[in-house]
Amino acid sequence: MNQPSQYAYPINSPFDLENTELYQRWRDQKLVNYPEDIADLIVEITDPRTLTLKEFSALQQRCRKTNMAIYVSKTGTDPDPEIPLALGRAFGLEDLNKNWLADENGLTSLKVVNEGIRQQYIPYTNKAINWHTDGYYNTADKQIHALNLHVVQQAASGGENALMDHEMAYLLLRERNPEYIYALMQNNALTIPARIDEGGTVVRKEESGPVFSIQPDGNLHMRYTIRVNNVIWANDPLTEEALNYLSQILYRNKEYVYRGRLEAGMGLISNNVLHDRAAFTDSETQQRHYYRARYFNRLVGTHFNL
Ligand SMILES: [Fe+2]
Questions:
Q1: Residue range 241-285, pLDDT digits in tens
Q2: Distance, CA 254 to ligand 1 centroid (Å)?
Q3: Angle CA(232)–CA(135)–CA(158) in degrees, nearest 5?
Q4: Centroid of ligand 1 to alpha carbon of 274 (angstroms)
Q5: 53, 290 in Cβ contact below 8 A?
Q6: Which residues are placed with Cβ below 5 angstroms of ligand 1, an ion?
Q7: Predicted TM-score (pTM) of this structure
Q8: Which domains does the chain have, with CATH numbers?
Q9: Phi, psi of 103 (to 5 degrees)
Q10: Pairing of strands 42-44, 68-72
């Protein structure tokens, strides 16, 4: 096995496998009053562009516990990009990952596109997207630490999202077998093959890295996709077992998995938690439109609790 990436950072982190005492303290704290219902993640706000201190604190408090919060605002179908951008700034998020299909302002408009290059990518179709964290195919120095979504319009039917705190996934895996964490921290745990265009040019190099990594500030990052095509997993029995258990956690779809449908004016702020998307059907008047913002840093003031 490759040396786990955690050893690159000599920091006191509960996510370090060597640090059992600290881990146990963190785990016990994490499980106290952990929200069971998606309703517990929801905060009603007036306008994300002008958050009050009270609204901000309510959102931040939830993010500190579960790495995510859902807001219900009164902006409805207002498509102003400032809505998600201003909210991101309120949480110290400036460093947008402007991927090649992003809009000029760095946001990505997720909606069904029937022309051009976008139609080849699942996010721009009405198909389901299975469990993942965002940016798992990015290079190690461009990993995504915060992911926000804002709904301008929801589809006529379908389009629910499932959400799971990646720290809770870590916790359940480590409780089952700490060696699962060891396997998923290997530097070659998950490899995304190079993307080669029709002319044979390498558009994106092969990217190999861990699933779980400990950041310089001691926080946990997760890089994951449950999809099986076009990904290469480390070929050892422990990794296979760990992945099977993680699938079970995600698919049993009960404890610690939140599922719900975000409506216009609602949104998610998160430290790039695990999520999926159900398939949906648009109509003439109800065409699903999400703004997606990906950032290279975490939501401010959401360091792990001890
Ligand atoms: Fe995503």
A1: 999 999 999 998 678 999 999 999 999 999 999 999 999 999 999
A2: 20
A3: 100
A4: 8
A5: no
A6: 134
A7: 0.93
A8: 1-19+168-255 (no CATH), 34-165+257-306 (3.60.130.10)
A9: -75, 175
A10: parallel
